[in-house]
Amino acid sequence: MPSSAEQSGDVPITAKRADVVRNQKKLLAAAAEVFATSGVDAPVREVAARAGVGMGTLYRHFPTRADLVVAVFRHQVEECAEAGPRLLAETESPMVALRQWVDLFVDFLVTKHGLAAIPQSDSSSATLHAYFLDRLLPVAEQLLDAAVDAGEVSADIQPYELMRGIGNLCIAPDQDPRYDPRRLIDLLLRGLRP
Prior knowledge:
This protein has 9 helices and no strands. The chain is an all-alpha fold.
């Protein structure tokens, strides 16, 4: 039998919150896909349609394009940060975990480069960069240390060097179809072997 709240049409606050969280997650996932394929200048209608929500829902969560891009950036940083330890626990070797994490990191970087096109203050840009380093450098270090301890990677590379090198390889401003950053990143990772 339905509760009195359900009979009156009132939805409990916890259910609304779950719905809000679900919509936000759908919007972030859809925006990441759209930004990766069409860039951050893609119509936000495309993001809402891919998420299966209306424009009002999108704007309630993210009043400006910059808000949406920054939220996608932060969400993807968190996903990358959480993936490192999980991959170490689930894969057969630290090097396999490192390679899988680098794939996720590259996926993130493809979306991240569009962030430069969004107007921001220097302080907010610096804050996002600091957040990025604070969350991901320790994960890269954990993965590299595990691979070094397993004898799968030489000990002479620093996490910052690896992340910076991968980031630089991902920069492709003109989307040249002859350039495949993943192939070069694979060569880089092969070069880490002792």
